[in-house]
Automatic annotation (TrEMBL), chains A, B:
Protein name: cAMP-binding domain of CRP or a regulatory subunit of cAMP-dependent protein kinases
Domain of life assignment: Bacteria
Kinase as UniProt keyword: yes
Residue ranges occupied by any Cyclic nucleotide-binding domain in the UniProt entry: 32-112
Keywords: Kinase, Transferase
GO molecular function list: kinase activity
Listed InterPro entries: cNMP-bd_dom, cNMP-bd_dom_sf, RmlC-like_jellyroll
SUPFAM superfamilies: cAMP-binding domain-like
Length: 193, 193
DNA sequence: GTAATTTCTTGTCATTTATCAAGTGACTAA
DNA sequence: TTAGTCACTTGATAAATGACAAGAAATTAC
């Protein structure tokens, strides 16, 4: 039960005294999932917060044609949460699935709630987590609206090169908002240069 | 100083006893801005939280070619905030500008902070605001990645028809991630049917 | 280790959207 | 009132990306 990775993650976002972090993570339980396992299925209500310690996870929706559209790719270490489902207790629209073997820590809503209302530093941390996630999403939206696929691909390659070692291209393509054929052609073009 | 609109907005998101809402909004000050005025400029640090009581506001960035890309359109009543700038005290990347004459209420960081740590209901409210904003952004991202411009236009027309009465088409086009010429053609196509 | 399945690439062609330029109508300022 | 600006439309053409199908390469399952 080595929680050093979670604890480090907390410290990295917000300065928190060691004993406080330990109190926050006291209720976190570890578990592992194999590659291609569903962590949280659609139309269910998320009752847990997940900390992804090792591995890759994606979320995806099924569109009108029942095709999977990847909405997010999560890279450890990070929290994986369906905010709407977890905090508003609504069914998820998205499926959360492991892309590699993964190790997680989880805790439930009541624990999060107790920490949120009782521990000043956890409140700040939580808010910061929202701010950062919102900001990342906003950046991706701007990218999607204002840059062409090739630019988005090159940017992902620059910022998260390791993703390409662990995630199939068809999933990356759908995350970039294009088809796998288009991504293949873009890669071919770039390799020529 | 009639705060009934803010108070109603608080109640609509989260059940809060009247005296608590009044305590929360006690520090809010009203002000008005004319059409096409900058509320929050880029490269500045946001020191206020704004509640938009009446009117329309947009945020936009300038891309590499110095063209304005509209990132969000805010419709009263709602909070208008640059989360990253306000909470992490970083310079904004976006410009926030009124699209019509607007009335606002504002309060500063210290007040938000005091309420956040002292008032349980405000904590819940704040978190809910983040959850909802995150969810909206996520929905837009999915739309942008998986649906064509015409579908996105029709959806906006269905969900927020009033925007079309108050916001120039060129701004709506850029919000939809397309050029104004394309939007014009899409509208022409649809009107034929 | 071989068959089955999945992923990736590539070809052809169609669709969507952008670019650029010109023109119209509406609003604005002196 | 008149010139100037801005929003919108439209035309011609080009660029970006998608759809579908076939085959190659990689991975998985037994």
């Amino acid at each position: 039960m080595d929680k050093s990775n979670i604890n480090t993650y907390f410290h990295s976002l917000f300065p928190i005294p060691e004993p406080v972090v330990e109190k926050i993570t006291a209720t976190f339980c570890p578990f592992t999932l194999e590659k291609n396992t569903v962590l949280l299925d659609k139309d269910t209500i998320s009752t847990k917060t997940y900390f992804l310690e090792q591995g890759y996870v994606r979320s995806y929706i099924l569109n009108e044609d029942n095709e999977e559209v990847t909405t997010n790719i999560y890279t450890a270490p990070c929290f994986v949460n369906d905010f709407l489902s977890f905090f508003k207790k609504q069914p998820t629209k998205e499926v959360y699935q492991t892309l590699t073997d993964c190790t997680f820590w989880e805790t439930n809503f009541d624990n999060v709630q107790a920490n949120f209302h009782n521990i000043t530093e956890f409140r700040e941390f939580s808010r910061l987590l929202f701010v950062i996630n919102y900001y990342k999403l906003n950046d991706r939206l701007i990218e999607m609206a204002s840059q062409k696929a090739e630019t988005r691909y090159l940017n992902l390659l620059k910022v998260q090169p390791h993703i390409f070692q662990h995630v199939p291209l068809k999933i990356i393509a759908s995350y970039l908002g294009i088809t796998d054929s288009s991504l293949s052609r873009i890669r071919k073009e770039i390799s020529k240069m």
